[in-house]
Amino acid sequence: MKDLGSRYSPESNAIAARARDARIFIRQKIRQLIEQGDTDPHVALVTHGGFLHYFTDDWEDSWLNPGTGWKNCEARYYVFEQDVMKDTDMEARLTETMESRLRRGKDNHMPAKEEQTVLFEQAMESWENQGLQRPDRIGVLVETSVIA
Predict the structure, then answer these.
(1) Where exactly are the structural domains of the chain?
(2) Superkingdom, according to UniProt (predicted)?
(3) How many helices (H) and strands (E) does the chain have?
């Protein structure tokens, strides 16, 4: 159920937790493939563009389309920042490959985590301006002025 506070809530923290769990699951699957002898495992993930921003923790240009910066059927390529055979990164963070970025006209590396925090806030504001609900404000009481 998508109740507030539940695993499947539309709240930003719940989405981020599901994205982290998905990254960990995929890392485990890649590890299994390697253990079974696959020397170059690849995994494709097909999901909603809005979720992909949480999954990749990549908020660059996330406002270009309604609720996402991803184009329909767009493919980007990411790798785990740390060795998939170890669980040293509890977040299982990803980084977009330079080849992937070059294919989409980006000649710089993926923005650092600190910059992603700023880009996340820009995304939320832009999504709200597009008429979408802000996941970071769901369940949060926002004071509004009341004209008496």
Answers:
(1) 12-137
(2) Eukaryota
(3) 4, 2
